[in-house]
TrEMBL record:
This is ATP phosphoribosyltransferase. Gene3D superfamilies: 3.30.70.120. It comes from the Eukaryota. Transmembrane segments: none annotated.
Length: 113
């Protein structure tokens, strides 16, 4: 039984296109396919906020100081064969190509109605 998920992640605006390009290249049959369309994503601009703790190595900012960054919220569909292996693989690829030390992401299961 195949399952569909929505993978939502947050990325610095300067890196969104590169992250998506790498993800679609690494997982072409799993990510961003909707019907006859490929590499589909929804991107919403916003501002992310964080304060790195001691020992953190942030891409932007420094430990102990509040930082705000122009980011994109990116939403892509994940097609999984039912055991969540493709979903886990997509998340692993996301973590590998993302510039942040800690990648913020959410996963939602999609239902057909």
């Amino acid at each position: 039984m195949s399952l569909r998920f929505k993978l939502v992640f947050f990325a610095p605006k300067t890196h969104t296109a590169e992250i998506l390009s790498m993800l679609f290249k690494q997982c072409p049959n799993v990510l961003g396919k909707i019907g006859q369309y490929e590499e589909c994503a929804f991107i919403t601009p916003g501002v992310g906020q964080f304060k790195p703790g001691p020992g953190a190595q942030p891409l932007t900012g420094e430990p102990g100081k509040l930082e705000r960054v122009d980011e994109d919220r990116v939403e892509i569909v994940v097609s999984d064969q039912g055991d969540k292996a493709q979903l886990k693989d997509a998340i692993s690829h996301l973590k590998a190509v993302h510039p942040y030390e800690e990648v913020a992401y959410d996963v939602y299961r999609l239902e057909d109605v």
